[in-house]
Amino acid sequence: MALYGAAAAVLSGLERGEGGLSGLVYGSRFPHTRQLYALVAETLRYSPVLEALLDGAALLRAERRLPLPLAKVRGGAGRGGGGSAAGPRGADCCPQVLVYDLLFGKGLKCGGRWKALVRRHRARLEAELARLKVRRGVSRNEELLAPGPGAGPGGERGGGRALPAAAGPGLTPPSLCFPAPCVPRYVRVNTLKTRVDDVVDFFKRQGYSFLGRAGSMEELRTLSGKKFLLDLHLPELLVFPPQTDFHDNRLYTSGHIILQDKASCLPAFLLSPVASSHVIDACAAPGNKTSHLAAILKNKGQIFAFDLDAKRLATMNTMLTRAGVTSFKLAQQDFLTVDPHDPKYSKVTYILLDPSCSGSGMVNRLPVEEAAPSAERLQALAGFQRRVLSHALSFPAVQRLAYSTCSVHREENEDVVQAVLQEQGSAFRLVNVFPSWPCRGLPTFPGAECCLRASPEATLTQGFFVAVLERCRDQAAVPSSLPASAEESLQQGEEMEPGAAPPKKRRRKKQRVK
Predict the structure, then answer these.
(1) pLDDT value at position 394?
(2) How many domains does the chain have?
(3) Which portions of the sequence form the region Disordered (predicted)?
């Protein structure tokens, strides 16, 4: 029952706006955070379908002992019209979680009295699921998630109906909803353990159809069924339809593939540290970017990774070990307290900085519209981000830095970069990375177009921002607000244009996927 109780607590915290999915999961006392995260994320993804099943099967009328589902708590639709007193706050289960695991998950493995109560109505729920598929003209469970023709926001097929929640004055109430447009499932091949060709062959043997390298964003947008593509921008990224789930696939559980949004892959890819370099990952947990850095470094050199939360670091250590990462040192430390002049960091030439932010761009991983941050909150975040970026640039040997956020707000992105560049004078400049990337920085200062933005609508990713800063070779000659030339970027050998073939590499023996 501990798993379902923990999931109910996380969902309740999300609805009350107490934090984001990752923070609430890692802040819980449940020992198996990956299992909890997957259950909550999938329950959220299926939430419109689950609500339809609960309503259609009249389960709550038949079993009054069940706590109210989150969808009903604050909408004034309580059993007695009373509202949230009987809701999930303090309850040890959530009907949506139980019904998800019964019908779409691994089956109810625990749950005590709630397990017996829900399983008593299994036939009723399965019959309602069958009727729902007939009404929507689909045959597979995953197809219930896809918007149907003519289904608008809040329509039965769209799954976009917001579930009401309380909010403070002037704040948008958080709501559970299915994001639109659908963002594909991105799979990064972990080149520390395998090769892209081997992973492609593995999925083909599992019945997937490989369509080759994508030629346009439209090909990614229309991907469906058991088909997949090689991404048109990143050479080791495979793209599957949005509802594809690989959490139980043995390539994932063995660390051969990493489930990572495309935008989240950009910072390490654009930083592109040379093998044998010393690199800092300043705000590292949960570790996907760290493992990406290690793959780019080919496990040569050294990665120093920092995070304040001991539990997140423990989880990260497990994840990195599973991914075959060996060249890393974890430290439970606030990066702002790290001494740039400590001899151990004297060879650090690359820094990846992905600091805490509002998380306002995370529309796919977490289908929850959280309360819009206030102006005061944004200014506080931006102040922290400016301090940590300035601190990172104070490491004497650093030559290149990637600054990224999963925020859509100018205050956390362009404004931070501009302020720190002005503070640095002529010491650092922006690098014009990926000139062909479709979304650029907001034109708030000269050179801001060198920054990258990402969004579900334009790039089929989470909302994201990346800026790459480089130490000026001739500090007196190059003002900080100007981008580095494209020729200098290419001389570094770090960037790869969209659609370009990856450089040939000497083939190394790797564990083949069978």
Answers:
(1) 98
(2) 3
(3) 143-162, 483-514
